[in-house]
Amino acid sequence: MSHYEKAGVSIDAGQQAVELMKDAVKRTHNANVLAGLGAFGGMFELTNLPENPTLVASTDGVGTKVKIAAKLGNYAGIGHDIVNHCVNDILCAGSGVRPLFFLDYVASSKLEPTLVATLVTGMSEACEKLNCAVLGGETAEMPGVYQQDEFDVVGTIVALMDKTKVYPKASLKAGDALIALPSVSPHTNGYSLIRSIFSEDEYSQAFEGIPHLGDALLAPHRCYLKELNILEDAKVDIQGIAHITGGGLVENLPRILPEGHSFSFDRSHWTCPPLFKLMQEKGEVPEIEMFRVF
H-helix or E-strand containing 105? Predict the structure, then answer.
């Protein structure tokens, strides 16, 4: 055993992780990728530029959802989470946003090659659906910084758009319709609150309308690109988009409204999903807090 391994870091484990993930990453590479896996810096050629080319970028993490994934040993959806979260953020920038490439960062107390490969494979699968390249990333083994069996995931996406198609549009006005696209889970929001509501023993249990609580909590963050393309193809004149993440409906919708405007929605138009109803009742969470957290 090397001195570095005795200190808690294995270079061999890092190389093994790369070997396990490289095929999934390479499947995301298209003709624009000039240097990717193994290069000191990823290179991406810009082609088919819009008339007013503008780069859009977003970076984010998955939050404490990783603790539930670690407890259940179920990491497959976490890679999808981080990609889809970042994609949804940049979709709010304007019409016709085209994802170009994605960069990831995975850190843990002890590098487990299979875990890292599972995470990056999930990212690659999500990116492949979007014709978005996984251009590079970083895997960090940091004993003493992270506790045993803990890890964190961060992702950055870069996209291209025409600056004349930016959201929200200046024509957004009072009387415009507010359209909601449903989530499939808490996505990546409020997991510290969720972990305070449920005990770890309950993750494997069933509740009314929820066959397996852990699976429901780990359902990946939904990507809304397909739905937005359908709306645009149907000539719906979208004025602006808000991604409902941390801060919920209360904090995120006002970010796109003109000064002096507010919003209202009709609760009779949707049914509260069983998971959210269970969280509110079991945690005795006030309704306004539910709308702010989730």
Answer: strand 98-108
- Distance (Å, whole) CA 113 – CA 18: 8
Instruction: Report the distance separating Cα 200 and Cα 163, nearest Å.
Output: 47
Q: Encode pLDDT of 116-137 as tens digits.
A: 999 999 999 999 999 999 999 9
Pairing of strands 53-61, 133-141: unpaired
Contact 134, 28 (CB under 8 A): yes
Q: Does residue 162 sit in helix, strand or coil?
A: strand
Work out the angle between the directed axes of helices 76-91 and 65-72 (0-180°, nearest 10).
160
Tell me the pairing of strands 133-141 and 151-162. unpaired
Strand partners, 42: none
Q: Is the peptide bond before 220 cis (omega within 30 degrees of 0)?
A: no
∠ CA 51-155-239 to the nearest 5 degrees?
45
pTM for this prediction = 0.92
Which residues in the chain come in under a pLDDT of 70?
A: 3-4, 6-10
Please report the DSSP string for 126-147 in residue order.
HHHHTT-EEEEEEEEE-BTTB-
Asked if residues 14 and 111 have their Cβ atoms less than 8 Å apart, the reply is yes
Helix, strand and coil content of the chain, in percent to the nearest 5, comes to 40, 20, 40
